[in-house]
Amino acid sequence: MKGTLRSALLPVWNVLCMLLAPLDRALQPIANVYNRTLGGHFGEMNGLQFAVISLGFAAIATVPFWSPFYSETLNITFAVASIWAIFAMSWDIQSGYTGYISFGHSVLSGAAGYTIGLLILHYDPSMGPATTIPVAVLASLVLGLVIAVPSLRLRGPYFSLITLVGVLLFTNLIFAFSGWTNGELGIHQVDPFTYEPWVRYYYMAIPMLLVALGLIYISRSNVGMVLVTIRENERAVSSAGLDPTKFKISSFVLSSIPMGIGGALLVYYGRAINPTSFVEISNSIEIIAIAVIGGMGSVVGPLFGSFLFFFLEEEFLRDVIGDSSLRTLVLWLFVLSVLVFARNGVFRVIWHGLGAVRGDSE
Amino acid sequence: MTLLEVDHLTKHFGGLVAVDDLSFSVDEGEIVGLIGPNGSGKTTVFNCIMSTYIASEGEIRFDGEDVTSEKTHGVVNHGLSRVSQESNPINLLSVGGNIKLFMLPNSFLACALPDAVLARRSDGGPGVVDHAERVGLEDKIEETPDSLPHADVRRLEIAKALATDPDMLLLDEPFAGMNQAEIRTLSEQIEQFREDGISMVVVDHNMRGLMQLVDRVVVISSGQKLAEGPPEEIVENQDVQDAYLAGEHGGI
Amino acid sequence: MLSGLPAVLINAALISALYALIAIGFTMIFGVGGVLNLAHGALLMAGAYVYLLLARDTISVPVFESMTLHPLLAFPLAVVIVAVLSYLLYAVIVQFVEDNPVVTFLATIVVALAATEVVLHYAGSATHTYTLIPDGMLPSTIDIGPVDGILTVDVVGFVVSWISIGLLWVYVTKTDSGRAIRATSMTERGAQLTGVNVHAVRARTWLVAGALAGIGGVFLGASTSATPNMWLHPLSLAFIIVVIGGIGSIKGSIVAAYLIGFLQTGVGEYLGQNFRGILSLVLLVIVLFVLPQGLFGREFDHE
């Protein structure tokens, strides 16, 4: 089935290559400047790849200026996409790279969210983000450590199971202590960063880009290499004199830092903390889905996946189908088809396509 | 000076005794052959030394320290490295990447540092290219392991083991699947490793390739030590010949 | 309202029977293919909603509109439909991704989410309740010894649960096709070498597991209610039970179902309903660390 699809698309691909190859060659000198300076740290690219990344970056950096031409809500959609991009990238550096799939990442952002909420509700309502956010990130870091140390001694599926249990436990605890947490209703006493939508976008997008830069650097460093090897052949890591458990735990703890940042942003974005939008298992699954459609194990893929996911959900499908459950159904079917037909993710398909343009023409 | 001491090592899987009260030792600078018919427990001995399996009884000491209950990575960091019978390179990484993985420090933070900083830390110690050169892979650093011929994949396995900077190498059937020319080159390289100060234990199921190479041979059969001595002596040993004739693989 | 120790014990026994039904299909699918089917809860949900569709006119779906079959007809029909849905899930999606456990994980959970949306679309977010016992056939509550006011549907569920378990036992021990399932779950290679068509066995397992999930789902919906999110709780229950019992072991699942059922009912009665879930999760964590292969399982390690 896949084979026939491929042969049917081959002529289209060839024409595309013919058109794009000169463009790629024209852009190569600019890409080379990058390759020589930063390429070693963030990965080398050819002309087209460099152009697409630069354009994507420019587009993200200028969303408030061009989004009104598409729709009034795009601004908000992409602000949310930025937060979830942080989540998906954080998940990816741990689960996507090591192959130890965590179903529990929503607990980490939830810890940050509830830390802020509880501080404001029970300690000092006037506390600003400058004090609450560091505490919140520390809280997810500590929780990350608490989850990682015992659970990462377990093998693959058992680890996933334990993280799933973590989510269920956390959710149950929120309800069990609803006197403190307001249970289902959640905590609503949070003031946002700002009410100005375009400024708010940058409050979400700038941390997202910084997190992306940091995680791309890590994934391209030797750490990324070790984590990938854990996924491919854990025994090889041991034979190399490296402690796989230590690296797995470190990657989980590392990923809990940006999870905390994202959770804090989500609090100040939505002005509320409740189990539904923070902790419940569906949040973890959404994080995973985003990472998967973008492409696990690439960091940039999940970033792309988040913008794609929210654009489809909140803009494109909303326009086409309207605000019904059918929209979400179509979205999940899309995720499912990516899983079955392009399990390496949409971003990788595009990226490798761009990389191969010139190879075919020369 | 004794480097590796295997002291009354026993390993059983359920009721099956794979290694039975085996003791031997390897001196610094020595190359010892560990031979025995198929299924005699040679690889299990290696697995116990490298803590792939947990020894049921007995003790393994390396450089005077007890490494019996160390984790695999700990044993490696003590200076022991093993080249397994099966090759398992990571095909997502280049040959150079595979070697580099084995040179990394066992520290998450240090691994996050740029390579330039790491290189400066190691004070001009051997790099990826140097390790590749020791086995003759220097021209194939950029290639991926799945594009290499069998003998080169085997060389890569040795380069990886060397990259951990070991004091002792455990070689499990290093000559398997190689032709005469390749065996000769590899034997010369192994000699060179010894010149470089690496002691070795070489496992093989026959002695053909080992005669010239090893200083001493330990023969095991059904997990027990059958004989020990210089290769010339072992070839003449009646017990050893009987053990081989009893097995499928006649002749030593 | 029930109270006192006898009531707690009877209640626990009834709910445990339901838990066993919920968990067995899940463990069977893991046993033969190494697949953790996260859409298992969705199959249970399908049982409840398909029954609603067939026996009640509260949901309106094209073709099935205002269909009201007699429960004795609707129940087996619902079970068959869920079994077929389960088979289709395997044939259309899972068999193409099962080589990669991570993708299988994700694909099945996405199926569960998609199922939620299907239910939302056709049945809305409302809570649907229904009775399984036809009017006038049996009283709606009965008394057992000193305890009165026990829902008849729960008792019927208990009986049906044990009948199903009995039939399953006969199937996997006395018939060739059932024995092939058991053999494959013990050692897939071994089964293959003795001429078992592993692929067909997997498909058949999904069919049987689906039927069990269908039965469980209909009774689950009847004893509580049918909602679009009803799949999550039983899925986590199935997880807990199966891990404690030993992944892949049917016997273990039944024992663990009763263990958890009694634990939850006891905790709910004496510590408060909010702690019902927490304690079994804590027990699960302890089991995972102390006895990872569970009570009756063998450790699984798919490398």
Short description:
The complex is a heterotrimer of chains A (362), B (252) and C (303). By secondary structure, chain B is α/β, with parallel strands linked by helices.
Give the terminus-to-terminus CA distance of chain C. Answer: 52 Å
* Total E-strand runs of chain A: 0
CATH topology of the largest domain in chain A: ABC transporter involved in vitamin B12 uptake, BtuC
- Rough outline of chain A: globular
What's the total count of β strands of chain C?
2
Oligomer: heterotrimer
Could you say how many structural domains of chain A there are in total?
2
What is the top-level CATH class of the largest domain in chain A? Mainly Alpha
For the termini of chain A, the CA-CA separation is: 29 Å
Q: Radius of gyration of chain C from the CA trace?
A: 19 Å
- The number of helical elements of chain C comes to 11
| Secondary structural class of chain A | mainly alpha
Number of helices of chain A: 18
Tell me which CATH architecture of the largest domain in chain A applies here: Orthogonal Bundle
Order of helices and strands of chain C: HHHHEEHHHHHHH
Describe this structure as you would to a colleague.
The complex is a heterotrimer of chains A (362), B (252) and C (303). Chain A has helices at 2-37, 39-42, 47-61, 63-70, 74-98, 105-123, 129-151, 156-176, 178-181, 197-220, 222-232, 234-239, 244-270, 275-278, 281-294, 300-321, 325-341, 346-361. Chain A is globular, with a radius of gyration of 21 Å. Chain A has two domains: 18-61, no CATH class; 62-361, ABC transporter involved in vitamin B12 uptake, BtuC (Orthogonal Bundle). With 362 residues, chain A is mainly alpha-helical. The two termini of chain A are 29 Å apart. Chain B is of the alpha/beta class. Chain B has two domains: 1-79 and 166-252, 3-Layer(aba) Sandwich (Rossmann fold), CATH 3.40.50; 88-163, no CATH class. A six-stranded mixed β-sheet of chain B has the order 6-7-8-3-9-10, sandwiched between helices. Chain B has a four-stranded antiparallel β-sheet with strand order 2-1-4-5, covered by helices on one side. In chain B, helix 3 (95-101) runs parallel beside helix 7 (150-163). The mean pLDDT of chain B is 87. With 303 residues, chain C is mainly α. Chain C has one domain. In chain C, strand 1 (141-144) and strand 2 form a beta hairpin. In chain C, helix 1 (5-33) packs across helix 9 (232-245) and helix 2 (40-55) packs across helix 9. The N and C termini of chain C lie far apart (52 Å). Classes of the chains: A mainly alpha (362), B alpha/beta (252), C mainly alpha (303).
